[in-house]
Amino acid sequence: MSSARTSHHGTDPKSGGASSVAPGDVLIRFEDVRKEFRNQTVAVTDLDLEVRKGELLVLVGPSGCGKSTTLRMVNRLVEPTGGRITLDGEDIMSTDAVALRRRVGYVIQHVGLFPHRTVAQNVATVPGLVGWDRKRTKARVEELLALVGLAPETYSKRFPHELSGGERQRVGVARALAVDPPVLLMDEPFGAVDPEGRRRLQSEFRRIQSELGTTVMLVTHDIDEAVQLGDRVAVFSKGGVIEQIDTPLRLLSQPANDFVENFIGSGRSMRMLGLGHVSRDDLRPLEHVHPGATLASIPLGTSLDEAFAELAVSETGGVLVTDGSETVGLLTADDLLASLRRLVAEDHRDAVAG
Ligand SMILES: Nc1ncnc2c1ncn2[C@@H]1O[C@H](COP(=O)(O)OP(=O)(O)OP(=O)(O)O)[C@@H](O)[C@H]1O
Question: Are residue 203 and residue 346 in the same domain, yes or no?
């Protein structure tokens, strides 16, 4: 994972450690940004926000709080009415809007693929606009399709109506990544996918993003998606106000105020469990297994919430943990709790070090 995974915090949950980040590590900066629409709706009041190079920053909050407006100001689909937004130090208002949009990928829920163009032609849209030759474009399209899990030989020539919703979403992601933009803006990108496909797509996307080192701002109203995907999560309230910006674990373990706590809602601890994974350090030796006991087994790397579900139905209070075909240890409820505590302590240590 890129260095962005190791987040550094200041002590102010609303700054998300802004003061501790070197200026060169910030890719997008919002300074006192305001957006008032013609009908006098103030969607964003006075926003200060820094997006660090290589991080995946999630904007989450209730409907109508200004998340999409904030996102769309970065590529000037919406123009700010006050303050300043810089991309790599350059004021976006003095950058040509078309050139800006070529540097900033944009993925929305209803992907907006061109219906009469094949998958390959859709992915090749921006390379075509910026004048890549055919050979380079073809190689890039194939590389990207493979990256998002769509075998080029099967999918290149299909049309959007010949794809499932999840496959269309993947094509949308591949298209947005085609010229390797330094920034990707994503507005509810996985919204159209069923829950199971969504989880898979989320984790695949996470892998791709960290491989490419793309800086991502992603909008969702789903707190589960936010804490699963984000290096940091900004919780918005009405008027584009940031109530807290922190790592997922800090957000869940130390909500800054009642608004954040209510927004996260019940199930905070289960969500925290979802952030951890069973590792060798959690296990006790196999001697602890009761002779004659029949235990379920789970692989190393299973998320702690799934491990918890197995433990909840285990008659002896333990599950075996495997690495490939080998059983490597026993996990009990106490071990699971210890693992969660360690996770929180490590995150806290990072925060203090930052
Ligand atoms: N073009 C527009 N003209 C006038 N008001 C607008 C416009 N676009 C958005 N708004 C208003 O600005 C506020 C913020 O909208 P925005 O779409 O940014 O919220 P959001 O947090 O992304 O919501 P959702 O999760 O429902 O998409 C809302 O009150 C919305 O009605």
Answer: no
